[in-house]
Design goal:
This protein folds into 2 domains: 3-23 and 32-55 and 85-244 and 399-416, no CATH class; 250-370 and 439-558, Serum Albumin, Chain A, Domain 1 (Orthogonal Bundle), CATH 1.10.246. It is 33% helix and 18% strand. The strands form 7 sheets. Strands 8-3-2-12-11-1-24 form a 7-stranded antiparallel beta sheet, with helices on one face. Helix 2 packs antiparallel against helix 3 (44-58) and helix 14 (271-282) packs across helix 18. The protein starts with a helix and ends with a strand. Residues 1-18 have low confidence and may be disordered.
Length: 560
C-alpha cells in the first residue's frame, strides 16, 4: 500500500467522559468509523463522511464513492443546510438515451454496463461539506476506510445474500469477480476476508491530494474509459464530464407538522416533498388516538402517500432543467386541499396529480421506477450538530462496472426511460448534465422549543419516503422510541397495489384494509433499512442522543 494511504490511518483517541453524540449506519464497521471521528473531536459532518467512505468498502452493493447522495445538516441554533451530490448525465445524453431499435429499453436491460452510469457525486459532496462543517483534517476521515480496504473485511450475511441475488451484475466486471467470487464462479461465503488494495490506494491518494484527484487524471480517465468500452451498453462519457461535476448547495425544504419543524432535501430529490406533503395531509387526523395497530391509521398514511407520489411523478425533477413548482407543492393551503380528498372510511378511486401554484401543463405523469440499493447514516456531535446523509449507487452493485475497486452507479435509470407519456414529455426525462429524480429523504426534526429532536432516513428506492414517514409518525404521534418506530411493520402504496409487510403484526390488517376499499392488498417481504438518532430527555432537564438501526439490516448505532 502506498505511503499516502498509510499516513491517513490515525488511531482513535479514548472516548471523552461527556456525551459526545451518536452515530448510526447500516454496517457496524461504518458506524465505528463515524464513532472514531467523534472521539477525535470531529463534527457530525466529519463522522458522516467517514461512514460514507467506510460503506464504500464494506457495503459495495448499496453506496460509495462510485455513486452520489444528499446531505442535510442541522445545527443547535436551528440552521439547516442541504448539499446535492446527485450524479449527472454525460453531456452527450438525450431523451432517447435508453432507446434501442427505436424503442425504450426495459429497466433490466438498461441497468448493466455503461449507459446507466452517471458522473459520481459523493466525493465532491464530501469535500464541500468538509469545508463548511468539518473540524478534523480531511485525511483523517479516510483512515478507517483505508484500513478496512487494505487489511480486509469479512463478508456479512447481507452482502453474501446480495451477491447471490444480483450475481449477474456483481460479477459483470472481471474486477468485481476477482473481489467477491471464487474460481468456481460462486459468491464467496459469509466470513471470507476480502482485501481491496486498489480501493485502499485510491482512497489514500484522495486523502492526501483532495477530492479533485478523483475527478481528474488517471481515475477520471478510467471512469470514462470503463463506461465507453463496457461490453454491455457502452456509452459516451468523457473526462470533461467527470472533471466538470460539482456538488450544489440547495435550499432545504422545511415545513411544520403539528408542533415540530421538519426539514429535508428538495429537488432533484422528491423525498422531502413527499414527506412534507404526506405529514401535512395527515395533520387533521387524530393519529395518536388511532394508534399503530389501527387499520384506519395505515389506510390514511397510504392514501396521503398515494397523492404525494402522484405529484412527484408529474411535477418533480432537476430544478436546473425544468420549472419545479416547489413553493406551491408545500404550501399549507394546497396540502389542505389535497387532504380534503382523503376519507377515513373509503379509498380514493384514483389518485391524480394536483395543480399547485406555479405548475404548468407541460409535463405528463409517469409511474415509479424500480430502485433497490442505497444506504442511510447519521451523526450528532458534542455540539449538538446533526448530519443526515443518504447515499446510493442505485441498484445492487450499480451498473456492475468496477474502477479502482469501487462499483460505478446505475443512477441514470432513475430517469424515465421512456421520455414521453400520451404525447407529452415527462419532467424527469434524460438530458445532458441533468440529475435524475430521487426518492432519498434525509430528515432533521426540531421540537417546539427549537432544539433538535430526531434525525432519520432510509434506503430502498420508492419505499424510502414511506419508511421515513412511518418513523416520524411512530415517534411523534405514537410515542415510540426511534428503535421501536423503525422496527414496526409498514403499510404503503406499491405499483398497482397496497403492500403490507409480511411477517409483521400488520399482516392481520389485510381484510380490514380491503374493507376500506383497497382492491389489491398484498403481503410482501421487504428489505427495509432505516436509521435514526433521537434526543431522549431525562428527569431534571438532562438527556442523551440515542441511535437506532433497522433490525432487518445489519445496522448499528454507537454512542461513543
Amino acid at each position: 500500500m502506498p505511503n499516502a494511504a498509510r499516513v491517513a490511518i490515525i488511531p482513535p483517541a479514548p472516548a471523552a467522559p461527556a456525551d459526545i453524540g451518536a452515530v448510526t449506519a447500516a454496517d457496524p464497521r461504518a458506524a465505528d468509523a463515524g464513532a472514531q471521528m467523534l472521539r477525535l473531536g470531529g463534527s457530525a459532518t466529519d463522522a458522516a463522511i467517514a461512514m460514507m467512505l467506510a460503506l464504500t468498502v464494506v457495503e459495495p452493493q448499496s453506496s460509495g464513492i462510485g455513486g452520489g447522495g444528499f446531505l442535510v445538516t442541522g445545527d443547535a441554533a436551528g440552521r439547516v443546510e442541504s448539499i446535492d451530490g446527485r450524479e449527472t448525465a454525460p453531456a452527450a445524453a438525450n431523451p432517447q438515451w435508453f432507446f434501442a431499435s427505436g424503442q425504450p429499453m426495459g429497466y433490466r436491460d438498461a441497468v448493466p454496463g455503461g449507459r446507466s452510469v452517471g458522473v459520481p457525486g459523493n466525493l465532491r459532496l464530501a469535500a464541500m461539506a468538509h469545508v463548511r462543517h468539518g473540524k478534523l483534517p480531511w485525511r483523517v476521515l479516510f483512515g478507517p476506510a483505508i484500513k478496512l480496504a487494505a487489511d480486509g473485511f469479512a463478508i456479512t450475511p447481507r452482502l453474501a445474500s446480495s451477491l447471490a441475488m444480483a450475481k449477474d451484475i456483481a460479477a459483470l466486471d472481471p474486477a468485481g469477480r476477482a473481489l467477491f467470487f471464487g474460481a468456481d464462479g460462486a459468491p464467496l461465503p459469509v466470513g471470507t476476508l476480502v482485501r481491496n488494495p486498489a480501493l485502499a490506494a485510491l482512497l489514500g491518494k484522495v486523502s492526501v491530494l483532495g477530492a479533485g484527484t478523483f475527478y481528474t487524471g488517471r481515475n477520471a480517465g478510467a471512469i470514462a474509459a470503463k463506461v465507453g468500452t463496457s461490453p454491455r451498453n457502452p456509452a459516451p462519457m468523457t473526462t470533461a464530464d467527470v472533471a466538470g461535476y460539482r456538488a450544489k448547495l440547495r435550499e432545504p425544504v422545511c415545513g411544520k407538522y403539528r408542533v415540530w419543524r421538519i426539514c429535508s432535501m428538495g429537488p432533484p430529490s422528491s423525498g422531502g416533498v413527499i414527506v412534507l406533503q404526506t405529514l401535512g395531509m395527515l395533520e387533521r387526523f387524530d393519529l395518536k388516538a388511532l394508534g399503530p395497530q389501527s387499520p384506519v391509521a395505515w389506510h390514511l398514511l397510504a392514501e396521503a402517500e398515494r397523492l404525494a407520489f402522484a405529484d412527484r411523478d408529474t411535477h418533480l425533477a432537476d430544478p436546473d432543467f425544468v420549472p419545479v413548482p416547489l413553493p406551491g407543492l408545500i404550501d399549507p393551503a394546497y396540502i389542505a386541499a389535497r387532504s380534503a380528498l382523503i376519507s377515513e372510511t373509503a379509498t380514493l378511486a384514483q389518485t391524480l396529480p394536483g395543480k399547485p401554484a406555479g405548475a404548468t401543463d407541460r409535463f405528463a405523469m409517469a409511474g415509479p421506477i424500480p430502485e433497490q440499493g442505497t444506504t442511510h447514516f447519521a451523526a450528532v456531535d458534542r455540539w449538538g450538530n446533526a448530519a443526515s446523509y443518504t447515499s446510493t449507487i442505485e441498484s445492487a452493485f450499480g451498473s456492475g462496472l468496477v474502477v479502482n475497486g469501487f462499483y460505478l452507479n446505475n443512477e441514470l435509470t432513475d430517469f424515465n426511460l421512456n421520455p414521453d407519456r400520451n404525447g407529452k414529455p415527462t419532467a424527469n426525462q434524460v438530458e445532458g448534465g441533468k440529475r435524475p429524480r430521487s426518492s432519498m429523504s434525509p430528515v432533521v426534526i426540531y421540537g417546539p422549543d427549537g432544539t433538535l429532536r430526531l434525525i432519520v432516513g432510509a434506503a430502498g428506492g420508492y419505499t424510502i419516503p414511506p419508511q421515513v414517514i412511518r418513523v416520524i409518525i411512530g415517534a411523534l404521534d405514537w410515542g415510540l422510541s426511534a428503535r421501536e418506530a423503525i422496527a414496526q411493520g409498514i403499510v404503503m402504496p406499491a405499483p398497482g397495489a397496497l403492500a403490507v409487510e409480511a411477517g409483521t403484526t400488520l399482516e392481520a390488517m389485510v381484510p380490514a384494509l380491503e374493507a376500506l376499499g383497497h382492491t389489491k392488498v398484498v403481503a410482501l417481504p421487504m428489505r427495509l433499512k432505516a436509521n435514526a438518532i433521537e434526543w431522549v430527555a431525562r428527569p431534571g432537564g438532562s438527556g442523551q442522543w440515542v441511535g437506532a438501526a433497522d433490525p432487518r439490516s445489519e445496522g448499528a448505532a454507537v454512542s461513543p
